[in-house]
Amino acid sequence: MDTAKKIVVPLPDSGLNKKEQVAGMFDRIAGKYDFLNHLLSMGIDKGWRKKAIRSLAPIQPRQVLDVATGTGDFAIACLKLNPDAVTGVDISEGMLEVGRKKMADRQLTDKIHLQYGDSEDLPFADNHFDAITCAYGVRNFENLEAGLTQMCRVMRPGGRLAILEFSHPQKFPFRQLYKFYFKHILPTIGKMVSKDATAYTYLPASVAAFPEGKEFVKILERCGFKKAHARPLTMGITTLYTAEK
Length: 245
Prior knowledge:
Elements: H1 18-40, H2 44-56, E1 63-67, H3 73-77, E2 85-90, H4 93-105, E3 112-116, E4 129-135, H5 144-154, E5 155-166, H6 174-194, H7 199-209, H8 214-222, E6 226-233, E7 238-244
Parallel strand pairs: 1-2, 1-4, 2-3, 4-5
Antiparallel strand pairs: 5-7, 6-7
Helix pairs in contact: 1-4, 1-6, 6-7
């Protein structure tokens, strides 16, 4: 059973399951996603990815899997590890289409392969990847523990995991300022630019429902990972979760 506080979906009255709704939402905003991602994070997201990549460097991974890869920014960042190959999977064909064009334009198709893939049924053999990454995707899983268990299955013993996910700052007054930005300013800008009325109201709602910090660490360990750790970044705006198998 999923352990999130409650199931939050983009379109509660659509009749579709969460997976279908999330895929459709990202299909709709795919063309504007990269621009909005960097705009709304004010570019800080690049530094967060660098910290995640550094956490994987000690094992010198040869095969890397990026789950919920979207348009492939985290997959590209993984090239800093000098792997043999990076595989990115996502359930949104719209996001993958943008990502594949990006890889072709940057001549990265020999190193990075993007394909459709469901986190709850990853199409890879057991113990295949040295490292697995996921940026801002686990909160979109329909079944959180099923997805994490699959990620553990396809990681080799001794492999490492790096997950970035939004979280809530705790210190006054930054907590209050961030909450106002996240609930009011971000959805307004997101809706205006993406022309989608739901994507950027779903985002803060899904973050509020996500089991962050120590609670998520316990879930990682329950799904087969060990040495799980939560490291808040930028006063807790986001958290880097690391673990091993």
